[in-house]
UniProtKB/TrEMBL annotation:
<dbReference type="GO" id="GO:0003677">
    <property type="term" value="F:DNA binding"/>
</dbReference>
<dbReference type="Pfam" id="PF16452">
    <property type="entry name" value="Phage_CI_C"/>
</dbReference>
<protein>
    <submittedName>
        <fullName>Bacteriophage CI repressor helix-turn-helix domain protein</fullName>
    </submittedName>
</protein>
<dbReference type="InterPro" id="IPR032499">
    <property type="entry name" value="Phage_CI_C"/>
</dbReference>
<dbReference type="InterPro" id="IPR010744">
    <property type="entry name" value="Phage_CI_N"/>
</dbReference>
<feature type="domain" description="Bacteriophage CI repressor N-terminal">
    <location>
        <begin position="18"/>
        <end position="82"/>
    </location>
</feature>
<dbReference type="Pfam" id="PF07022">
    <property type="entry name" value="Phage_CI_repr"/>
</dbReference>
<dbReference type="InterPro" id="IPR010982">
    <property type="entry name" value="Lambda_DNA-bd_dom_sf"/>
</dbReference>
<dbReference type="GO" id="GO:0051259">
    <property type="term" value="P:protein complex oligomerization"/>
</dbReference>
<dbReference type="GO" id="GO:0045892">
    <property type="term" value="P:negative regulation of DNA-templated transcription"/>
</dbReference>
<feature type="domain" description="Bacteriophage CI repressor C-terminal">
    <location>
        <begin position="103"/>
        <end position="202"/>
    </location>
</feature>
Length: 208
């Protein structure tokens, strides 16, 4: 090594939420659920990144190789995601004129979401239901169609993330930025910042 060669110092890599924010952007994922499914990484692992302020280097490199997104953007939070404007490497986006929509489908077990084979739904049917960002969740013998675009709680059943665990709960908005949430049949009052709303249940399909 040349003694006059400049030393390579550690970088100030971004961590936790800042990382997942950029990963969602370059992969066109709107939620942690979508990102978890795409990366084949459990949602609890992503929650650990957030809680411990970790930088998932292997995942970042994998996303970089797949999408062509800038490592400087993903690791340091600098520059543009695609400085070369090479959009050919970006993930495919859902076409709005498709007659059949392949909806992401998950099984909800003990607070975790496990990715399953996508379900096909008629585009016009989903449109009539007013669902713009569909997500299918199976729990016990019921399949719930969730609209991820509805994250503002008023009243109804919502898919939520509480401390890294997912659940479907009946929620009613209360004054003072508080919610009344049904937990095992009993009402519990919480602050709106205590949970993250993934979407609202718009349709329930029960298995006979």
């Amino acid at each position: 090594m040349n003694e006059q060669q400049e030393k390579i110092h550690p970088k100030a890599y971004i961590k936790g939420h800042e990382v997942t924010k950029r990963l969602k952007e370059v992969t066109n994922c709107h939620t942690i659920l979508e990102l978890s499914s795409l990366l084949n990484v459990s949602s609890s692992t992503i929650s650990t990144w957030h809680q411990r302020e970790l930088t998932p280097y292997e995942v970042i490199i994998r996303v970089h190789l797949h999408t062509g997104a800038s490592l400087e953007y993903l690791l340091l939070g600098k520059g543009e995601p695609y400085p070369e404007k090479n959009y050919q490497n970006e993930p495919n986006r859902v076409k709005k004129n498709e007659k059949v929509v392949n909806v992401e489908h998950f099984q909800l077990v003990n607070g975790e979401l496990f990715s399953c084979k996508r379900l096909s739904f008629d585009h016009d049917y989903l449109h009539r239901l007013g669902i713009s960002q569909p997500l299918s969740i199976e729990s016990r013998n019921t399949t719930y169609m969730v609209d991820k675009s509805v994250t503002q709680v008023v009243s109804g059943i919502y898919l939520i993330d509480m401390d890294g665990f997912f659940s479907l709960n009946k929620i009613q908005r209360l004054p003072g930025s508080r919610f009344s949430i049904n937990v095992l049949g009993s009402p519990l009052q919480i602050h709106e910042d205590d949970i993250r709303v993934i979407g609202k249940v718009m349709l329930e399909m029960n298995r006979k």
